[in-house]
Amino acid sequence: MNRTVNAVRGTAAAATAAFLAALLTAPAAQAAPGTRTLYAAPDGRGTSCTVSRPCTPEGARDRARTEKGRDVRVLLKDGTYRLDAPLRLGPDDSGTTWAAAPGARPVLSGGQDITGWHRNADGTWSAAVPAGVTPRQLFVDGERATRARGEACPASTCDASATGMTGATATGIDRWQRPTDAEAVIRVRWRNYHCRIAGVSGDTMTFVQPCWTNSASGTDRTGPAWDSTAVDSTRYSGVAFFENAPELLDRPGEFVWDSKGRTVTYLPRKGEDMRRARTVTPHTEQLLVVDGAHDVTVGGIGFAFAAYRQPGTDEGYAGMQAGLTLTGATGPVDHAGRYYTKPSAAVTVRGGRRVRVDSSRFSHLGGAGAILEAGTKDSSLTRSSFTDLSSGAVYVGDTEPMPEASLTGERNTVAYNTISRSGVEYTDSVGIWAGYEAGLSVDHNSLDHLPYSAVSVGWGWNQPEAQKSVLRDNKVTGNRITDVMEVAQQQHDGGAIYTQGAQPGTVLSGNYINRSAYGNTERDGNGIYLDEQSSHITVERNVITRIGYKWVSNWADYGIRNTARGNWTDTAAPALGGTGSVMTDNLTGLDRLPAQALAVAARAGAHGGPVEQLRTDLARTGTASQSSTDGAATAALALDADTNTDTRTLSEAGAWWQADLGAVRHVRQVEIWNDAATTTADFDVVTDDGTVHVSGKALRPTLVNLDSRTRTVKIVTSGTGRVALAQVLIHP
Q1: Distance between CA atoms of 716 and 49, rounded to whole angstroms?
Q2: Planar angle of CA 628, 722, 485, nearest 5 degrees
Q3: What are the tens digits of pLDDT across the range 519-557?
Q4: Cβ-Cβ contacts under 8 Å for 430 (sequence gap 6 or more)
Q5: Mean pLDDT value of segment 236-249
């Protein structure tokens, strides 16, 4: 094990242990002079708040407010605290510490148990749902169930317009028992829409308002005037799936909600016994709200089963970007996203000063994890875990580019957290989002298996009202980002680290990024994406490998004076756009990471970790040829260590591209990166001792496993067409 990684792990573990020890282990009798310790328990009552007679959390809060002039610790005993409303802390609660009691793992829960299951003749199980509860998510023994869903419906059938959609007849929706319980889930580039069906007439479906109108173009509120990612745009390719209809309930682990009968029906997975299973649906929206308080510390507490109700209303989920939505039937003209709505979160800090959330656990949430907003300053979210969230994990800041001083987010920290499988339901959301922040530190977080971008800092799309903002001096450092921009989730035009806006003094450094949009069908998904007006940003000493598109992208000529220097990557990228932007001392096109890069990557993340070394490429020293050449797209461009340059033959029968390795070599795998237009399809990979056929379009990349001793590797179309390749790597 690398000594540096061990040192990072040891430092993080020691810091966490010291923090918890300071908060949790000192008994009341040994507390510092002037410190008062109160206790809460899931079955607490009364006003004593002692270790033997604990209060409820609200009771402990109210008792703490009477302890004038003293520091107060509230220790939560073990167990699940079921909340019908959030625990609210305000200015009168400043200076308090809320933490787990020694040895305890308390959880604040917004969940509602679903009981009384009975078996149906078709093998499904049903249960009545208490009044006021609407199950949008369901967790069975801690595992998320899936709302019953169907197949994709292409735009040729489900043709969307500003008023509705065709396709009810072809999909069978016109024959469903309750089509108005069902929703259409649509993904258009970086956006995600969830709108419930309002009615069906013949082949036409209409959808609830204002969800549908807010998902369509022409509102003058859906972002930049050039935007072409609405449901009625040319970018719309169809419905990803319809969900929540009993006719779609056909796979184990799926459920459906019947709003008329107020029942939920579930098809169990193998081994699940609904008579004994614990089944929970998120019901209470927020679990902890800190509003206008200062010097509050929260440590060692779990947050689970918080709901996010808006998508189930007529507002629906009109996703604009990064998990923020357009709401309301009317509103001001808005081309810069100033009036978008953040998702509901388990923990919300508004206008906080020196608020600290540490060593906490966020899991099984219907919305987001935590939000720091409305001028929160000098606050932190550290050493916490976020797992299985419907929306994003962390939101910091707001969407007003020039807020008054009291509402400016400044000097906040998001560090040493682990974020995995957020954005499970709202796939346009990101792991960590920051709006107009100054002095933000996003440091040594581990983020993996996310549907869209991992870290997003900045806002505004270069719109006039957003060109001057408070953005400055932000740091995104030492983060470990792996397997993001997941291809199966169909969200496009993002990156592992994504920025917008002029941000003087902002640095993106020491991050390890591996597999962003890896295996895509098009050029899409960047490593570091300096989008739109991103300016005055330094990108240095990052390790960026296996990226679906560019390792660094700065395409806009109005994104100026950016610098990329001293980075390590396995491909090249076009020069940075914009006046004064430079790339210098970057090691690109690598097929092995040098020791210095391995050390940087190993230190990245909440606990450090392993690094996926690059694989030796035998083709680098080979000679390429092809059956014909279209223009300047020569065969050698597939061996130039750049996945952004393409070879291309003419369209012809048996078109081929070949690499001659110069000698017989033992080949284990061929890595084929298709060109921008995904033109290479239905082809054979031919070696000296065999042929492997690949059906369908080549990906970025398609991996072909071999066990061959060969001098040549040839890619040949099975019929008539082109061979067009961005890169071919041949691994020993």
Answers
A1: 76
A2: 130
A3: 988 888 999 999 999 999 999 999 999 999 999 999 999
A4: 322, 323, 392, 423, 450, 452, 453, 454, 455, 456, 494, 498
A5: 98
Measure Cα distances from 277 to 136, 252, 438, 600, 634 in Å.
19, 15, 47, 45, 61
What is the residue whose two structure tokens read 């209303």?
Answer: 313
Tally the residues of the chain.
Answer: 732
Q: pLDDT tens digits, residue range 90-119?
A: 999 999 999 999 999 999 999 999 999 999
Evaluate whether 203 touches 169 at the Cβ level (below 8 Å): yes
pLDDT value at residue 521 = 82
Dist CA 323 CA 426 (whole Å):
7
Give me the chain's average pLDDT, please.
Answer: 94
CA-CA distances (angstroms) from residue 523 to 253, 292, 488, 635?
34, 46, 15, 19
> For the whole prediction, is pTM greater than 0.90?
yes
Closest residue by Cα to residue 589 from 416, 726, 705, 487: 726
**Do residues 347 and 370 make contact, with C-beta atoms less than 8 angstroms apart?**
yes
How far apart (Å, rounded) are the C-alpha atoms in residues 610 and 445? Answer: 15
The whole-angstrom separation of Cα 529 and Cα 509 is 14
CB atoms within 10 A of CB 596: 13
Say whether 19 sits in a helix, a strand or coil: helix
Long-range pairs of 60-66 with CB within 8 A, sequence gap ≥ 24? 61/87, 61/89, 61/93, 61/96, 63/38, 64/36, 64/38, 64/93, 64/96, 65/92, 65/93
Per-residue pLDDT reduced to its tens digit, 700-711: 999 999 999 999
Q: What is the average per-residue pLDDT within 114-130?
A: 97
Cα distance between the two ends of the chain? 26
